[in-house]
């Protein structure tokens, strides 16, 4: 059984190796074909006059720059679209902040400490404070007066 298992593993490895070799051979063949094409194009370019060589080089550079320019325009459009989206979000958040600030100024001063006490009460339920008191600095005179009374 061990020998058969080893034989099966060896055959699997051999098959994988052969498949890899075939893929590499195909890749080498494609690279050789591409190299031959490039060599032929280079030889043809060398046979041309220097003026034509310069013109071909300029055409290739123009094509490259045009493609690069198109990519940059696409990127610019994408960034401008993102900027507009972010500006809209900023306006929405600014409006929310203004509305919140306006609602805070409209709340009577007497209700604010009550709301704070409710928040403190919630904290006390979640945490077990022993002999600790949390208060706001502006509430200190009121706290002292209540303690004395």
Q: In terms of per-residue confidence, which ranges show pLDDT below 50 for 5 or more consecutive residues? A: 120-125
Radius of gyration: 39 Å
Element pattern in H and E: HHHH
Structural class: mainly alpha
Q: Work out the helicity level.
A: over 70%
Mean pLDDT: 84
The count of DSSP E runs of length 2 or more, i.e. the number of strands, is: 0
Tertiary shape: flat
Oligomer: single chain
Largest sheet: none
C-alpha termini separation: 94 Å
Number of helices: 4
Strand fraction: under 5%
Describe the 3D structure.
Helix content is 86%, strand content 0%. The chain is flat. It has helices at 2-47, 50-106, 111-126, 140-148. Mean pLDDT is 84; it is low at 120-125.
Question: Quick recap of the structure?
Answer:
The protein is mainly alpha-helical. It is 86% helix and 0% strand. The relative contact order is 0.03.
What's the topology here?
Elements: H1 2-47, H2 50-106, H3 111-126, H4 140-148
Organism: Oreocharis arfaki (tit berrypecker)
Keywords: Coiled coil
Protein name: MYO5B protein
Highlighted features:
single chain, 149 residues, mainly alpha, MYO5B protein, coiled coil
């Amino acid at each position: 059984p061990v020998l058969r298992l080893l034989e099966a593993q060896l055959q699997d490895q051999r098959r994988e190796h052969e498949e890899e070799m075939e893929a590499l051979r195909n890749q080498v063949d494609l690279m050789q074909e591409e190299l031959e094409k490039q060599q032929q194009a280079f030889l043809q370019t060398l046979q041309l006059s220097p003026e034509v060589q310069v013109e071909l080089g300029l055409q290739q550079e123009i094509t490259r720059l045009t493609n690069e320019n198109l990519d940059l325009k696409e990127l610019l459009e994408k960034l401008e679209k993102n900027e507009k989206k972010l500006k809209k979000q900023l306006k929405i958040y600014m409006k929310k902040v203004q509305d919140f600030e306006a609602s805070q100024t409209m709340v009577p001063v007497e209700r604010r400490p009550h709301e704070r006490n409710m928040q403190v009460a919630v904290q006390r339920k979640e945490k077990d404070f022993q002999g600790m008191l949390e208060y706001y600095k502006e509430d200190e005179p009121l706290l002292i007066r209540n303690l004395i009374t």
